[in-house]
Fold:
Amino acid sequence: MLGFLCLGAMLAFSGMISMFQLGKLSNNTQNLLNSTLENMAVSKRMLDAAQMQNTSLLHIIVLRHNELDETFTSARAELEAALTDASVMTSNSTSLDSIYRARDNYYRLIDDFFMKPGEKDVEWFMSMYGSSYLTLTNAIKDYMVESQRTMLSEAEALEKYAYMAIMPGVLTLCVALLIVIIFAFMIDIYYIKPIQRMTRGLDAMLKHKFPYNVEVDGDDEIARLNGQLKELAALARDKIKE
Structure:
C-alpha cells in the first residue's frame, strides 16, 4: 500500500513538473513566434518604404521636378517609424547601426542633389544614387537575416525546455517500472511461493495421506493461514484415528 501511494505521489509530482515546463515552453514558443512575425513585418515595412522612395525619386527625375513630392516624404516618414519600432523590438544594435548609417548616407546624397540647381538627370540616379540605395536595402536585408539567426538560436534553446518537460515523466516511468519489478519479486517470494508450497502440501495430504508439515516464515496472513491449515490437518488425523 505504501509503495502504491509513493508511486502515485511520484506520478502526480512529475505530472505537475511536466505541466509547468510545458506551459513555460508554450509561452516561450509563442513569444518567439510573435517576435519573428514582428521582425518580418518591420523589415517588410522598411523595404517597402525604401522601394516607394526609389520609385518616387525616379518619377521626379524623369519628370524633371526640382522638389521631392509628397509620396517620397510619406515613405521617408514610414521608414523612420519602422526603424523606431525595430529599435524597440530588437536587442541587436549592430544591424540597426548599419541601417542608420546607410540611411544617413542615402538621405544626405538625395538632399545634396536636390539642393543643387539644374536639371535632375537619370545618370545620377543610375550611378551615385543606385549604389546608396542598394547599400540601404542590403542593410535592411542583413538586419532581417540577423534577426532570423537570433530567432533560430532561441528556438534551439527551447529544445532544453522540451527535454525538461519530458524528463520527469521518463524518470518516473523508469522508477515505476523498477517498483513494479520489486513488487513482483516480493509478491513471488512472500505470497506466491508460500501458497504453492501450501497447495502441494495439501495435495500430498489428501492424495497420499502424508502429514501436512509446510513451514512459512513470518507473521502475516499467509503464515497465519498456514498455521490454521496445520491445525485443520491435525484435527483431520485425530478424526481418522478415532
